[in-house]
């Protein structure tokens, strides 16, 4: 009989309990003991829900206070000395690595963060050093297994695999990954031995790195590691789990190794079925078949899934999710405002458990086609295709008739920038921010009140305008050169846009973990996209009316809106991107008409959906993604300055696309990645203006003037002074106001000193 499994479950909780818990611990409002007790309750609830839905392979250790990559660092003692030297207990060392630490004369930055493959989840980047004593250190994985066992759930602990851990780590440029293989293998073996001692039956080792382009060295290292790990006959059965793509580079090697099971993704892994077809699968292994999409929120198409299962049914199968359910919201039950007519097409994490259960039932039923669950599911799948509510023929036509010239501005950059400089008249090294300003509990409360109808639109407008007025004053006091309106009206840079675009559905509680305690609430792209009305212009022109300095209008770009939403699956992404691009174009032109001279179109998430395989990058993504950005602004006057912004930017491999975006100014999140992208831009003759982030806003730490000067001087050395802007990294809204003001003041003061020196 086929069994069912989940790779991982959302850990934040139905009501984002984890966020509140961890934040109160960090604010010293609750003790470690209370944190652990309440977290235990949360974990227990998640295990029970899965058990009640008949899931047979339930994970433990998929929970984390902050990030599972960080958990793994603690587990194998990959803790950089700067954190060890703080002399904190294990939990506080953990949070120091996650968030940085500043107290008395101690001042340590947080580890870098990066996006987890092609998701919007961020992991903390391990820093490996040769003199680290990599060995078994932590006990969370054991502890959680026992916690679950105590309430009668025999779980499979999960663990990020050694090759994935290694390849995502930062090592010094003189070293090669090979040098770390033995160290890591030994530490993992220690972990496995201990799990064995505890009587654990299954262990899920996750190696998503296997779905990326592998080098010979990677394959060699993989074999070295796992030959060693699987050498001893142990009671423990290891499931090698992959996700986010297919394992074309290493499939046959996987079959040769002595795994109990192999987990493959049949949603995003386009070649996995082909591989099985061509090379077969092992008779003595179990295939974990990832069918229920862990990344998108649409109901599973049972016909599609069962067809796949039927093709491989001669093997021992377990029906699985395609990846951890971490990337989808918790439950549709919390969506009280979303109309039933939409909800019926959706499945969040809890509903996906039900789908696994039903798929199992149907797969075991020879007459599944007559099973009412199958019939009902297929009915829903079919009528989504026919739903006419959000089909806009005019938009579809506009997209159809787009031509090459519709992506390019009329004048060249050289010509534009001269005019822009005349209009803007800014000092050297102009200072600015990336858009948002700190959002307090109060603002969030007011926005909620407005949404619930507890205050009317007049009152709301007055409140937001008061905030804008205040932030303009603050920025004038700090003496920034280009101001922003602060984004107070926005819950989130994508959700807010979704609210004003037809074709989007907004959820009430559809939170997904983005990093640590921060969640995002991606809107759902349900149909064709069309702007309802101008929605940023009033706020932004009000802000401009309060200052003589130029005010930078702030928009979210089409690629970021697309990448941070749950996309429909019945239309190519390319077409969705153009639809959004055209809607944003209308907003850009309205801002320009309202007298806004600088418009920033954030493409924070450009890199995020780069296909896993490099050879697909251009054709399957970048070629249209860049055009969707350009369609937003090709119509503006040469005097209007277009900025764009990008997060976590590694440019080396997409430099020609960055150039072709043709933005007059690009601001980039840079503080955490040692400014190396500036070298890349310079080496590639990037000729437009650049604003690298000069400090990391993710940490409450306030950099001093001298620290700023060092960074800024470094930047000047690398780039033409006349093309540089000075700004912090993005996301100021997450900081407390006092922290932001202090840091920005230091930033501006240091620029002023430097201006005198140059
Ligand atoms: N304008 C946004 C901000 O400053 C950009 C956020 C981002 O890059 N993620 O918050
Ligand atoms: Zn950013």
TrEMBL record:
Keywords: Amino-acid biosynthesis, Coiled coil, Metal-binding, Methionine biosynthesis, Methyltransferase, Repeat, Transferase, Zinc. Gene3D superfamilies: 3.20.20.210. Pfam families: Meth_synt_1, Meth_synt_2. It catalyses: 5-methyltetrahydropteroyltri-L-glutamate + L-homocysteine = tetrahydropteroyltri-L-glutamate + L-methionine. Its cofactor is Zn(2+). One of its GO terms (biological process) is methionine biosynthetic process. Its EC number is 2.1.1.14. Binds 2 Zn(2+) ions per subunit. Binds 1 zinc ion per subunit. Catalyzes the transfer of a methyl group from 5-methyltetrahydrofolate to homocysteine resulting in methionine formation. Belongs to the vitamin-B12 independent methionine synthase family. This is 5-methyltetrahydropteroyltriglutamate--homocysteine methyltransferase. It comes from Haliovirga abyssi. The gene is metE.
């Amino acid at each position: 009989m086929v069994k069912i499994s989940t790779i991982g479950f959302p850990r934040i909780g139905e009501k984002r309990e984890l966020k509140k818990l961890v934040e109160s611990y960090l604010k010293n409002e609750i003790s470690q003991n209370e944190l652990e007790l309440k977290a235990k309750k949360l974990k227990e609830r998640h295990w029970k829900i899965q058990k009640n839905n008949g899931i047979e392979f339930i994970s433990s250790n998929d929970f984390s206070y902050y990030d599972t990559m960080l958990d793994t660092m603690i587990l194998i003692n990959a803790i950089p000395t700067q954190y060890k030297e703080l002399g904190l207990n294990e939990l506080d060392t953990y949070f120091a690595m996650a968030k940085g630490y500043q107290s008395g004369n101690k001042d340590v930055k947080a580890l870098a963060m990066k996006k987890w493959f092609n998701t919007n989840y961020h992991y903390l980047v391990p820093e490996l050093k040769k003199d680290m004593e990599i060995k078994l250190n932590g006990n969370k994985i054991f502890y959680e297994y026992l916690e679950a066992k105590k309430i009668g759930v025999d779980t499979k602990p999960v663990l990020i695999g050694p090759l994935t851990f290694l390849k995502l780590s930062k090592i010094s440029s003189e070293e090669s990954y090979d040098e770390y293989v033995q160290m890591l293998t030994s530490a993992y073996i220690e972990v496995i031995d201990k799990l064995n001692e505890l009587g654990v039956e299954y262990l899920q080792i996750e190696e998503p790195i296997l779905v990326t382009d592998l080098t010979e060295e990677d394959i060699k290292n993989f074999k070295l590691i796992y030959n060693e790990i699987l050498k001893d006959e142990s009671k423990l059965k290891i499931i090698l789990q992959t996700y986010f793509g297919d394992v074309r580079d290493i499939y046959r090697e996987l079959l040769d190794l002595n795994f109990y099971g192999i987990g493959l993704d049949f949603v995003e892994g386009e070649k996995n079925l082909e591989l099985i077809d061509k090379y077969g699968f092992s008779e003595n292994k179990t295939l974990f078949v990832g069918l229920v999409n862990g990344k998108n929120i649409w109901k599973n198409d049972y016909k599609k899934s069962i067809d796949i299962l039927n093709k491989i049914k001669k093997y021992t199968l377990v029906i699985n999710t395609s990846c951890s359910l971490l990337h989808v919201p918790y439950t549709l039950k919390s969506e009280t405002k979303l109309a039933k007519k939409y909800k019926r097409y959706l499945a969040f994490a809890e509903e996906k458990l039900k789908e696994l259960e039903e798929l199992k039932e149907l797969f075991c039923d020879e007459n599944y086609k007559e099973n009412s669950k199958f019939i009902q599911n297929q009915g829903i799948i079919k009528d989504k295709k026919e739903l006419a509510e959000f089909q806009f023929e005019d938009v579809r036509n506009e997209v159809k008739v787009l031509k090459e010239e519709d992506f390019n501005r009329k004048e060249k950059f050289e010509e534009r920038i001269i005019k822009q400089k005349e209009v803007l008249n800014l000092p050297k090294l102009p200072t600015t921010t990336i858009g948002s300003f700190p959002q307090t509990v109060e603002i969030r409360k007011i926005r909620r009140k407005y949404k619930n109808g507890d205050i009317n639109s007049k009152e709301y407008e007055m409140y937001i305008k008061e905030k804008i007025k205040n932030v303009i004053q603050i920025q004038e006091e700090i003496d920034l050169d280009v101001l922003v309106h602060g984004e107070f009206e926005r819950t989130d840079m994508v959700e807010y846009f979704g609210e004003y675009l037809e074709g989007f559905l907004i959820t009430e509680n559809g939170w997904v973990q983005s990093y640590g305690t921060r969640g995002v609430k991606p809107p759902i792209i349900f149909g064709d996209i069309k702007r309802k009305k101008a929605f940023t212009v009033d706020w932004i022109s009000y802000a401009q009316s309060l200052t003589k300095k130029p005010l930078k209008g702030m928009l979210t770009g089409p690629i970021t809106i697309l990448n941070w939403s749950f996309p429909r699956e019945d239309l190519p992404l390319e077409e969705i991107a153009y639809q959004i691009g055209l809607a944003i174009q209308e907003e850009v032109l309205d801002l320009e008409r309202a007298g806004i001279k600088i418009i920033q179109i954030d493409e924070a998430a450009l890199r995020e959906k780069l296909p896993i395989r490099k050879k697909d990058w251009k054709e399957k993504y970048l070629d249209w993604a860049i055009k969707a950005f350009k369609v937003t602004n090709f119509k503006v006057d040469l005097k209007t300055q277009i900025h764009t912004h990008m997060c976590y930017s590694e440019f080396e491999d997409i430099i020609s696309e960055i150039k072709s975006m043709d933005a007059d100014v690009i601001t980039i999140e840079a503080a955490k990645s040692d400014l190396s992208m500036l070298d890349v831009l310079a080496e590639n003759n990037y000729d437009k203006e650049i604003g690298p982030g000069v400090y990391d806003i993710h940490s409450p730490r306030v950099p001093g003037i001298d620290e700023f000067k060092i960074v800024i001087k470094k930047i000047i050395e690398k780039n033409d002074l006349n093309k540089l802007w000075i700004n912090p990294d993005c996301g100021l809204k997450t900081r407390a106001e006092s922290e932001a003001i202090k840091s920005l003041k230091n930033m501006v003061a240091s620029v002023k000193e430097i201006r005198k020196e140059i």
